Amino acid sequence: MSDFFEQEEVLKSYDADLMKRLLVYLKPYLAVFLLSIVALLASTASELVLPMIIQRTVDRHILPYYRGLRLEKAPPEVRRKLEPVDGRYLVDGVLYLPAEKLSSLSAREKGQLAQEGILLEENFLVLPGMAVVSETDLRSLPLEQQRVLRRKDYEGLASMVRLFLAALVGVFLFTFLQVYLQAWVGQMIMKDMRTGLFHHILELSLKFLDRNPVGRLVSRVTNDIETINELFTTVLPSLLKDFSMMAGSAAALFLLSPRLGLALDGTGAGRTYKPPCPL
What we know:
elongated
């Protein structure tokens, strides 16, 4: 009876063989588990789409302003940077570009161009085939005339709101599907493990039952299996979600602003600042 209440050795390090034995219980439900992973990735993608929708809504429909650039006075290197920009309009020697497209120019370049009078500091609203209106003149007009001039912006805003709501519904549906499927897989794995352990205990000898307290056996069948259930319903999905969120956020950042993405990559984790050694 000396070892009746002896503490068992607790495994603290990762054991690949033990993980393989646990993943065997996942095999009968692998298709459902993979479907839950697909739902998780779709939910993550929907979450990443939301800020992109907001950004496009603000830049293209709420504040769809252009900046004017005197093309004849612009340096050749500035022209080369702005040549591939879409949505340009040339009116009376002034090149009007969407304000968001000026991200190819650094803040220093913009300040120098504005100081030299090449980059017009005022914002403009471009009405294709009609006119170019400065922001100051636009705000001085009556509200009804502003609504008429910005009719396409209102229509685009309504479309983006519908798209935003659709993305929110997608996040809810895919998240619900992911949680439901993973909970179902976890419950099925718990059922199989507890059933197997129960039948295994019934086949054990009385000598084994005399050496091991009932509480320990009950803990193995209940609490420990519940912990294993969290591996399939919480740990693995959270790991995949965090990884996909980081990868998706980095990809979205590069798509929205390559300059900011490169700056963030240059100051990534793992690169620490080393002060110069004193002489």
